[in-house]
Write a structure and sequence with these properties.
- The model has no long low-confidence stretch (mean pLDDT 87).
- Helices cover 43% and strands 21% of the residues.
- It has 13 helices and twelve strands.
């Protein structure tokens, strides 16, 4: 009755709220997109959208249809991405997702041991945005990631790698920027970067000490940041601070000369884990998981019990 392209177009228009924005995202001409939506409505025999000068809104019937269409489009995309992951595994490669820094900075031993054991497996890097929920959707375009703590997801496996001391990232010009070390009590009430509401709250809270405060910071920047660069800019300007795992201190200090990393004396460490989707366990991914598991057994046996493996 109608094709998948029409569903994808319809979902994009609803998500963007405007034909113009959706057309730009889909790389199609706006008149063609408008015609495709009109044809879909004609085929269904029901009006889905109300057009107005500022964009489009859903009709009551459109709201019902949108939920089904979005599920169908997501399922098709997920199936294609899973197929791509399996194809990468067959050709001996894997995509390692990164949020700002490459995996060999987060856990150099893991990458070193893996490349020595499996020199023919190619590692490709892909930059991804801050994690969103569900975590499985965030991992849709990659095979594995190294991340700090995330919200639980039954479709995701988690292999802890190690515990990193926390540091405070702060501008040298900030009132606490000249300190040799800091305590939790001294930074809890400082201003922190704000993350977008779609960002995983568990992951975000790990960077803003929410577990010690019992919730998000009272003082946050007005504009949310969805990338490392957007978060670091106000820190460099002295407008906010953030905590981070210690391995990030060197690269950030080198990139931003006005920012320093100060040890947070009484804070618990950040747990770093290798994570991936249960349905993306190709042979290269499984080989990497095996290396990670063996390293933990040898060097950090206390972390082995934290592993979440549902495959």
């Amino acid at each position: 009755m109608f094709n998948r392209g029409q569903l994808r177009y319809f979902v994009a228009v609803v998500e963007d709220g405007q034909l113009t924005r959706a057309a730009a995202r889909l790389h199609v001409a706006q008149p063609a997109l408008s015609q495709a939506i009109a044809k879909l409505e004609s085929q269904l025999g029901v009006q889905l959208l109300v057009r107005h000068p500022r964009g489009v809104t859903l009709t009551p019937e459109g709201e019902v249809f949108f939920e089904k269409a979005r599920t169908a489009v997501a399922a098709e995309s997920d199936a294609l991405q899973t197929g791509e992951s399996l194809a990468r595994g067959a050709e001996g490669s894997l995509v390692f997702g990164t949020v700002g820094l490459p995996p060999w900075l987060a856990h150099p031993e893991l990458v070193e041991v893996f490349t020595e054991a499996r020199p023919k497996i190619e590692i490709r890097l892909k930059e991804v945005a801050y994690p969103t929920t569900p975590i499985a959707s965030w991992l849709a375009d990659v095979d594995v990631m190294i991340s700090t703590v995330l919200s639980p997801d039954p479709e995701v496996w988690v292999q802890p790698l190690g515990a990193e001391p926390r540091v405070v990232l702060v501008a040298k010009s900030h009132p606490i920027g000249q300190r040799k070390e800091l305590t939790i009590a001294e930074v809890l009430d400082e201003t922190f970067p704000r993350t977008h509401p779609t960002v995983d709250p568990v992951w975000a809270g790990n960077w803003t000490l929410d577990e010690y405060r019992g919730g998000p910071p009272a003082k946050q920047l007005d504009r949310p940041a969805s990338s490392v660069q957007a978060s670091l800019a106000p820190i460099a300007a002295g407008l906010a601070i953030s905590t981070a795992p210690a391995f990030q201190a060197g690269p950030i200090a080198n990139a931003l000369s006005g920012v320093v990393a100060i040890p947070l004396r009484d804070a618990g460490p950040m747990i770093l884990s290798l994570v991936g989707r249960n349905d993306r366990c190709s042979r290269p991914v499984q080989a990497l998981r095996d290396v990670a598991r063996n390293l933990v057994k040898e060097r950090a046996p206390d972390l082995a019990r934290l592993s979440v493996d549902r495959t």
